Amino acid sequence: MYLVPGDPATFLAGSTKTTPAQLDVLRAEYHLDDPLLQRYTEWLGGVLHGDFGLSLQYKESVQDLIASRLPTTLTLVVYAGLLILVGGFVLGLVAALNRGLVDKIILLAISAAVATPVFVVGVLLLAVFSVGLGWFPATGAGDGFADRLWHLTLPAIALALSLIGAVARISRSSFVENLHRDHVMVARGRGVPENQVVRRHIVRNSLGPIATIAGLVVAGLIVATTIVETAFGLNGVGSLLQASVAKRDFPVVQAISLLVVGAFLVCNTIVDMLYPIIDPRVASWRKAS
């Protein structure tokens, strides 16, 4: 952002008739003329004390600004995350167990989903289901749990569609890899019912790679909400990030970037903690080492 053309002081001034002297006053007031390293060090020191600074654009505390918008974004991320995990898992399993026409159709569908940009999906959903059919509202996050879910259904689908395809690909590959393992063939040879073979020997041994990619995908959803929240008029962290980048609101952008990094760390930590439960072989390897 520091290399992007433009001066934050001109956005703060809000007028094209501002004199250079007035711009200098604004730069001094908000420490915009301080060296980059000094500004970053001061910001980091404030973060360690729970102070993320003051928004240049909104003139209010950054943590309060983010906190007021976080519920909408978290609801959207959880909603989309569930769609991604369930949809990707089911599609991958169905494709792996039905090699042939069904597999080819699903592969074609997920390839199309992965290749379609989020904003294109959002525009199509708005045009068909909001403007055309009127089944869902076009903008806003709604009030109350049920109303909020109704308002966030189209944004969640737009956010999740391409990532469902990505998770489905990984899931299918993992399931196919375990379909013809020796222990699976032995179980089938002993007459174990197919549903038990799938559940105990194929699905469980395939969950490791799926959990890893799912953790990364869910953590990255906060950044992906930028386009979706802007398209659907949602007052969330993603739209705040977009507006802050456009106005070069450094404190807000830095705080949201830190939030995204924290989300990745938390999700990866949770996946690492769950891995021995998902795949007991990992726990055995760790004990052996």
From TrEMBL:
One GO BP: transmembrane transport
Domain ABC transmembrane type-1, chain residue ranges per copy: 70-271
GO cellular component: plasma membrane
Domain of life: Bacteria
InterPro entries: BPD_transp_1_N, MetI-like, MetI-like_sf
Lipid bilayer topology: Multi-pass membrane protein
CDD domains: TM_PBP2
Spans traversing the lipid bilayer: 76-98, 105-129, 149-171, 210-232, 252-278
Keywords attached to this entry: Cell membrane, Membrane, Transmembrane, Transmembrane helix, Transport
Compartments (UniProt record): Cell membrane
Pfam families: BPD_transp_1, BPD_transp_1_N
Family, per entry: Belongs to the binding-protein-dependent transport system permease family.
Protein name: ABC transporter permease
Organism lineage string: Bacteria, Bacillati, Actinomycetota, Actinomycetes, Propionibacteriales
